[in-house]
Every structure is written in structure tokens, then in C-alpha cells.
Amino acid sequence: MSSKNFRSKIAIGLLVVFAASYIVMSLPRCKSDSTAPVKPPVTQTPQPAVPQVPTPAFNADSAFLFVKKQVDFGPRVPNTEAHRKCAAWLAGEFKRHGLAVIEQKFQAPHYKGGTFNGINIIGQYKPENPRRILLAAHWDSRFHADQDKKDTNKPILGADDGGSGVGVLLEIARLLQQNPADIGVDFVLFDAEDQGNDADDNQDHSKTWCLGAQHWSKNLHKPGYMPLFGILLDMVGGANPRFQKEGVSMQAAPGIVEKVWSTAASLGYSNVFVQEQGNAVTDDHYFVITNARIPMIDIISRPGGTKTGFVPHWHTHDDNMNAIDKNTLRMVGEVVTAVVYRTNNGVL
């Protein structure tokens, strides 16, 4: 999870107005928002009943195995053998599920020096269909355990922070192959999201994070690419999740947030997808919004109870398979799957 430690109230400026109904406000500049003022709960407005449409059953066991396979490679830090092997596996899985695959290679400087050889992996379901949805997650894991008390200079496995979102998306790709829908879906796995600087409050680090999303958003895999909307999954596998309406998402695409949260409520998950607005997070969606003008929201667990507000295993060596809860994968997977199939049927 990138840029997740907002320590100040300094705004990084107004985002570009990319459509009349999508206006993005300013947001804090770095990773922890623990010192930001607490925002009042979102006033819950009555939501119309969401029509039920046939939706394939999301398999949490399958998603769990997709997460485990990534973790089995080891830490997926750019320029490592584990990173290269996992990239090849991810592209192969998309192809196995019938998707057209683009491997978007790029180079980006790391703030500690040197250059990352990154790769964004894009799987296209029905690339010929002009009506499209963007689903995304990051697939790299952090190069050091900066929030741990031991082995802080060693990389982490990133089962939840990166792996969980990818696992959910791979399972949705499998479902689409077995249960065709008349809509295009682009699965974008961003690289080098979690390699940023979180050590110095005296400079703006936002550009050291989300390097793959920054590259993709300025070099779209298809000229003029504009999906109906995008959904980013980040840290969606931990136990006792709490999904607030993330701040940037509410500023940029409140209508999409409400569609997703109303879908969650219709599935009985209103106690998890809560009617509260959370603080802004500089995650991959931020650069997709600002650079590509694509309305995109972030589903990210903010259970609280820690100084950062993020899950206790965030950026520690505890972010391993023991941190993954199949029930959380199932809830998130069911919600996103329902959004895809209900959009396909024109009820969202």
C-alpha cells in the first residue's frame, strides 16, 4: 500500500477537474493521516433497492490460493528474481483465463538510488468491447519492513498489501472466463507501488510512490482509453476489515463509491462497507485520476486501532499468509463481482 502514512495537514494542491461531475479536492502529501482532523460520518441517504441479477459465486478458496502463490515466490521487489518469476506467472494466469495480455515495461528511479525495472501487467477481457471497466491492484511488495521492530531493512512478503487485491482480481478473471459477460474488463496490476519514501517529513514524497501507476496513467495501454469507471483494491484480505469511503474516491467519483457501497449493502455487508468517510490516501487511484482523468475509487481496509489507522501488519513481516482471512477475500470478491455483472446488465 503506497503513500499510506499521511503525517501532516499540508495539501498537495487541487486536482484537475476532469469532468463536470468529478471534482477532486486537495489532499495531504504523504503516508499517514493519523494527525489529520477526524472527518464526520457521511450522511447516509436512502438507497434504492439494487435489482438482483445472476452473479457467479466468488470462490474465496481459489482467491486464497492465488495470494499464496504470489507469496511463495518471496518478496516481489523490482530487480529481484522473485519479482521476475512472479511477473511471468501473473501474465501466464491472465492468458490461462483467456485474457489478452500486455506487459508494459518501464524504468523508474528509486529515491534511495538506482533504477527499478518495473512491469505493469494488463489483462484484457473482451478487448474489442468499447464498454469497459477498470479493475486494479498493485503486485509488488515493500522493499523494507519500516513499520516493524526487527529486520527493518529486509523486504516483506506483502500477502495483504498487494497480494490480496491481486488474488481477488485473478479469481474474477477466472469467473469471467467461465461465466461470460457482454462487457470489457481491464485488469491492471501496477508495479513499484510500495517502494516510496516515508522517512522525511520535510519534502513531498508523493511522487516516490505508485511508480507503475504514474507510468501507466501517462502511457495508457490503449490511446484514448476511458472506462466507465475504475476500482482499486488495496489491503483487502485482513481479518476484521473496515472499508470506509476513502477521501480521494469521494472527491473524484462519489457516484461510483455509492454504487459499490449500495451493492455491498444489498449483499449484507453494510457492517463492513461502512457509511463513513475516511481520510485521503495517495494510492494508485490518485495518479489514475490526476493523470488519466479516469474516475476511480479505492477499496482499502482502515480498521483503526493503530497509530496509522491501517492494519496492524502493514509494512511489517507479519504481512504473511497468516494475515489473510478468506472471509474478507470473499466479501470483497462478491461485491466487486456483483458490480461487474450488474453493470453488464445495466442495473448499476
Give structural notes:
By secondary structure, this protein is α/β, with parallel strands linked by helices. It has one domain: 3-Layer(aba) Sandwich (Aminopeptidase), CATH 3.40.630. It has 8 helices and 8 strands; from the N terminus they run ααβββαβαββααβαβα. It has a 6-stranded mixed sheet, sandwiched between helices. β1 (100-109) and β2 (115-125) form a beta hairpin. The protein starts with 59 loop residues before the first helix and ends with a helix.
Secondary structure layout:
Layout: H1 60-72, H2 81-96, E1 100-109, E2 115-125, E3 132-138, H3 159-178, E4 184-190, H4 211-218, E5 230-234, E6 243-245, H5 247-252, H6 254-266, E7 273-277, H7 284-292, E8 296-300, H8 326-344
Parallel strand pairs: 3-4, 3-5, 5-8, 6-7
Antiparallel strand pairs: 1-2, 2-4
Helix pairs in contact: 1-3, 1-8, 3-8, 4-7, 6-8
